[in-house]
Amino acid sequence: MLKLEIDPGLKQRARSAAAKIAGSFNWLFDEYSSLTIERTVLRFLGIDGALKDGKPLPNVVVDHLHAKQALANGTAIPVAKAMLSGNLTAQSVAEAVGRGDLDLTNLPSVPPQEIFEVLDGLSAKMLKHIRTQRETREQLFQRFGPRRVPAIYVIVATGNIYEDVVQAKAAAAEGADIIAVIRSTAQSLLDYVPYGATTVGFGGTYATQENFRIMRAALDEVSEDQQRYISLTNYASGLCMPEIAAMGAMERLDLMLNDAMYGILFRDINPKRTLLDQYFSRMINACAGIEIQTGEDNYLTTSDAVEKAYTVTASQLLNEQFALLSGVKPEKMGLGHAYEIDPELESSFSYELAHALLTRELFPDSPVKYMPPTKFASGNIFKTHLMDAMFNFTGQLTHQGVQLLGMMTEAIHTPHLADRSLAIENAQYIFKAVKDLDASLSLAPDSFVNTRANSVLREAVEFLERVAEEGLFTAMARGEFADIKRPENGGKGLDGVFRKGADYFNPFLDKMKQELGL
Amino acid sequence: MLKLEIDPGLKQRARSAAAKIAGSFNWLFDEYSSLTIERTVLRFLGIDGALKDGKPLPNVVVDHLHAKQALANGTAIPVAKAMLSGNLTAQSVAEAVGRGDLDLTNLPSVPPQEIFEVLDGLSAKMLKHIRTQRETREQLFQRFGPRRVPAIYVIVATGNIYEDVVQAKAAAAEGADIIAVIRSTAQSLLDYVPYGATTVGFGGTYATQENFRIMRAALDEVSEDQQRYISLTNYASGLCMPEIAAMGAMERLDLMLNDAMYGILFRDINPKRTLLDQYFSRMINACAGIEIQTGEDNYLTTSDAVEKAYTVTASQLLNEQFALLSGVKPEKMGLGHAYEIDPELESSFSYELAHALLTRELFPDSPVKYMPPTKFASGNIFKTHLMDAMFNFTGQLTHQGVQLLGMMTEAIHTPHLADRSLAIENAQYIFKAVKDLDASLSLAPDSFVNTRANSVLREAVEFLERVAEEGLFTAMARGEFADIKRPENGGKGLDGVFRKGADYFNPFLDKMKQELGL
Amino acid sequence: MTKKDIIRPYGDTSGDGKMQISFSLPVPADAFGKEAARLLLKQIGFDDIEICGMRDLREGYTHFIAYVVTSAAVDASRIKVKVVETPVMGMEATDEYIRENIGHEITVVGACIESDAHTVGIDAIMNMKGYNHRYGLERYQYFNAINLGAQVPCEDLLQRARAEKADVILVSQVVTQKNIHIKNLTKLIELAEAEQLRDKMLFICGGPRISHELAIELGYDAGFGTGSYATDVASYIAITLAGKIVKG
Amino acid sequence: MTKKDIIRPYGDTSGDGKMQISFSLPVPADAFGKEAARLLLKQIGFDDIEICGMRDLREGYTHFIAYVVTSAAVDASRIKVKVVETPVMGMEATDEYIRENIGHEITVVGACIESDAHTVGIDAIMNMKGYNHRYGLERYQYFNAINLGAQVPCEDLLQRARAEKADVILVSQVVTQKNIHIKNLTKLIELAEAEQLRDKMLFICGGPRISHELAIELGYDAGFGTGSYATDVASYIAITLAGKIVKG
Ligand code: B12
Ligand code: B12
Ligand SMILES: Cc1ncc(COP(=O)(O)O)c(C=O)c1O
Ligand SMILES: Cc1ncc(COP(=O)(O)O)c(C=O)c1O
Q: Most C-beta atoms within 10 A of its C-beta, which of A416, B95, B489, D19?
């Protein structure tokens, strides 16, 4: 078996530096909330739908309170109050606010006990629904058998949810285990989640609850046909992390892109907003039994895969520590890395083997998310197909958890039906060909592969210790991550972060913490 | 390094069985000659050209003697006699015979000493030419540096030598190290070698001396451009093995397909004829410093690559022993094998790794000729391209000598210009990616790969020992090889084998034996 | 004609007409070459031409990889497929069928004709062993299968067929370079007609580039392409010969 | 017109017209589907259609792989290529050229506009570091390079350009799905015209699917595609602006 010999002292140092960094944000997690966290609470209470102009009702309600500077204690209490006063459902409360018929800051007083009872009932119901979804998934895996390793993950990205369904079903029938519906360009930057089924998107299809529902239903159908549980995934990251996580939990998504720092580094979302939102959103993922996936691949789409290999390792370690704080179990942490090596580099495969093994060695329980070549994919589809084959080879040889299949048309267009099919054929052929190869091989300890893995880890440790020393926000402000400077108070969405008032109440946060043993 | 642990006793038994089989043909090699051997002598004496109807002059002269039952003592003496009597060149003698103006059985007598003097002069001159060609090649390799390992070998097969030249030059410029001009369908079965430059062939271009010359000149030109010596190869096997070997020697081909048993098994050429012809033809190859390549891949185009893997090993061992008898050095023996594994087989890559390593382990000095997937190549060019990548991976990982690149259009047509270019791109990418991978890896002794290699060798040994017991011809007659029954006196060309007379003389055979220390 | 009847290529949106193309031109790998490639595709009639790959093949040639949109569409209702229409039976069923409907052994003579030496295909149909878990004709009780092997001249095949009083001739053609297969198959049929054998036997050809349609066009009774099995051929022969007995 | 002037695809024989094609159709993977594929290719105008691959994509779709022959040919003498024609100078030479011919710093404002977040391309042109061993414009002595980065609304870009008194605007567009790049680039030019900025600056766009020709068509001064370097852009800007000074 291919097994690295890694200096145990280094591993130990790596984890404690990362834990120190992640552990210094209790002030943020405990004392702050954000607009999207509040909108999540509303969604969980049962508020959905949108105004004619497309503005979702959760935004309407939160903005209403925000505008009146009445958000400090959260949205749960005022909504519950309004429900009790008017004998309304949460949804009707929101609709009334939307029509301008109701002012949540001007409600008759209600005994707090009644308020907490209402909220207790609604939150118990929602958490039960989420638990049921988790159990349904577990039963289906029980019935159909576990996911293959690496799982075959493909994207659909037509922009039209109905066209996506056709492509997803075809992919599942050909052997895909996980379907990712790629989001429309830069949905990260929307401070709301669009509503309803959508048929127009650029580079992808909007993440909406209805779209989740449509795709989940389609995949449940194929799962029966194929007698194999087909997982569904989408992106949480962005200005609506917890809301989308909540939608995923309600609609039984099985995995979600959820990176602790992606929004900050790659979308210029405010650091505080991002860390705060990811904290709650991952808790939702954890309760729903949803496997999170992190976005380390993003470091390598702009930087060199060899020179900056340590940034991937460092980010994996941080993502792990942040995930632990949200109650995510190691076997649900799909940490990321990517085969973004220059195909012109001599021994490119050996470098990648070292990097892939290092991830497996550091995170043995993680269903690692392995991303394909994209940066060096070119208009030469035949060459890209080969690079994808080398990527598939590495994925199977080193038993990565999830193989995000590369497409031979990566540099040209979002995948056509045939591109995806050829990608699945590629993976299936290579996976089968090298199925048990690992069992025949071993690694010389003084070999290039082993040496390289150790040196990447050493660089990561040195980097993390430096960051632990100066603090994450300072380091980010200095451009230590991905060569991009992100000041603590810069970026989008800072005005959506607020300090909790003395009477702040979020019925879900507390219950989830309890459920997760946090 | 990937190194097999092979039972040394098995290796020993394998070689002695093969040596016993090959060593039992001295009666044939010493006491017989064939029409093509005699035509070779004539070609070496300087006879070339053809009659208007296309019949080559060497055939005219040999058939003339054969018809008059005057061939037993060879052609050298009668031709020399005619030269002396008429003060003619060998060529004019042949032309006169061709015109019907000269009867070689009816010549005035000439003192034997004069005859031998003439033949000694002509043979010395020709052998010097061949030596010069060999030295030229050696100097060019000296100047430009050695061939890469594995060497990149591609075929051209347009049927038109001038079109072939364009394709060969393009391939060389893209990185090919060896150009093979594929022969027109079934040239093996022609009992003559066509004359002159040819522009019409099916599935390939006729092997003619003029075509050899045209291509060699073109490649010499590209070698200068590329500052890399580009080798040329063609096929000797068939009813004209020694003649084509002679043409290759004269025109500085660098490698030649020359399998001891191909003609028998795959072309139904008589067993005696084939073994006899290969004996002399390989001697010519050896004197010319031409690397021979054997045709073990042919076993697997019809049989299963796993079940019949041992037939490849057995044939390699036999080809080695026959080659040693002709004075071919191990470093000039390009023994063959092929990546003909079913891509649907689980662990196909591990099987192939075992087979590829076994060949390298048994023949460490051989510039092994490694053939690509052909049988399982389908009209799905994308899939075939991937199979070729796995083949290239194995070739580089196990340091095979010559990689005969697969083409993604293998199942469709003889290669288009772009197909060949994509094949070279495939090889160059994979070779570079896994360049030193071998150095990082080792093989567990009880691994599947090691166990499999030992079991293939064991099957080969048992097979060879059985054949050694009953004799090669008997075994062939019983269909032990490639499941095809080939009786000793069946097949084409037996009537072209004759027992040497008491005064038989072949001025080249003796000199070559001497030169090769046989 | 409903919308469903119009068949157009599909990339990722119904009827988007997307196609992938690659080809080589005798042009340099530069803006001039790329424009030549674009014009060529335009001349063929494509729209939205995106030349995404350009590879220098040396010696003045360049390889282009492109995605294009075609406006071509096929009317499904006009597609007429010529296929072998007899149902396919298993080996035992076929033997049983012959026993009942024909009552005697069927003699089949097969070969790769002329220059073609690719026997694997015809062996797959005729030899005992068969192919992909379907036994070949030799294994059938009611077939007398004579496989002459590789590179059999047309004359020899017909002579043997006559001598054996064959009911069926099977011909394989694999090499298609310069349409050699068309030439060889035509030669066989013409000789058979000249020798008045054509109507005495079924003439069946096969090979990776043979379709039933092509076979009919060349004057054969049936053609079998890639992925055919002995079961297909045997069923066809049995049912067709039984039909002739009834008619005759 | 000599024979050399006629450009036709080449497989392995001059002018053989061979092309490789693949595409998907909403048809089953059977004889009917294959015939639909053949008819489609025939309708496009291809000859010698050989459908060598047929892959079931499920959900009623099938993927076809084919080799065909086209009779199309391009007349070399009619190919007119619109390319950036200014010679390419190195960094030092360009700086020197600007010093001599323009005499002051050139201000360049660049951005990925609207929804596009692909900054790697424009960074390659503008940032210090550059790309593939060619420094970006920031590094040039005579360029004042202001890179606004990703997802900049057209309005903001123009406003900043006006504020900086920019000589040149650089725009990158990488995403092309549903021709979003055409829409965005057109929007920028129309706004610039409305704001009377169009003639005050050079407008240059770039991206993997941008050609000089397309740029001109959209109303830009120049366009740069895959494999462009800062040297190309800097030389073009320097020489073009110097020309304007002379003329103006
Ligand atoms: C194996 C092989 C060989 C072997 C053949 C061994 C043998 N005993 O048959 C050897 C090594 C001898 C060989 C030699 C050559 N080959 Co070859 N060979 C192949 C290869 C790799 C596989 C063919 C095969 O066995 N397929 C498997 C069988 C089961 O499939 P099949 O033939 O299609 O048969 C099925 C159906 O078509 C049908 N069928 C076929 N025949 C019949 C007949 C009847 C009556 C019926 C009902 C059905 C039927 O049923 C079969 C079962 O489903 C192909 C490439 C490829 N991957 O296809 C090249 C290929 C066919 N060969 C090719 C060439 C050019 C040659 C040579 C001419 C090369 C040369 N210059 O030396 C020589 C000469 C051969 C000759 N004289 O014909 C070309 C043909 C190009 C073309 N389209 O014209 C190919 C495509 C390779 C290439 N890309 O260049 N070859
Ligand atoms: C890296 C990358 C990303 C990174 C971008 C990081 C960053 N900071 O730029 C991330 C991960 C963020 C990303 C995201 C997305 N991407 Co993206 N991405 C790529 C990728 C892999 C490489 C692009 C690249 O960096 N090329 C290298 C640079 C150097 O090349 P270049 O851009 O062509 O630039 C050169 C020239 O074009 C020219 N040039 C470019 N701009 C300019 C400007 C001027 C003025 C001049 C003179 C010259 C010039 O000079 C440059 C140097 O030579 C491509 C696939 C590929 N291999 O091409 C997909 C690709 C471009 N992405 C794509 C998509 C769809 C997306 C998403 C929409 C996916 C999604 N739904 O989430 C998102 C959203 C992004 C958005 N809002 O725009 C598609 C676009 C499909 C299409 N044709 O429409 C591609 C082709 C992938 C695919 N097959 O789906 N992506
Ligand atoms: C972690 C993560 N989140 C989200 C996204 C994409 O979402 P958006 O384009 O909306 O930022 C990506 C894309 O690479 C990602 O890696
Ligand atoms: C050893 C050997 N000789 C010769 C040939 C081909 O020559 P021919 O088709 O004339 O038999 C081959 C083809 O595979 C071969 O392997």
A: A416
